Known about the structure:
Elements: H1 3-17, H2 29-46, H3 56-65
Amino acid sequence: MSITQQYLLDTYRARQHGDPTPPAPGAHDWQVMRELPDHRRFRAVLAGRPARGRGRVRAAWARLFTRPSGKADPTGPAAPTRPAGPVISGECAPRTP
């Protein structure tokens, strides 16, 4: 029996008994996904392990995809400087007489 058939059977039985209908399959999937990290931290505490704080994955992504702070590395070469102002395509250096 598929999940849809089970849902239809449960809905039919609920109507026959005058009970409220059950939620549709997949109605609370996002809520479950949001609560999963809380459940993992709870299970870690019960097992005697330290509960990790929120944002470990977000911090890892931030470290991977953010630019360096711009501080010069004393051991590495100096960063090239950008010209001041916008660079217009086809712009040439001024002619000297």
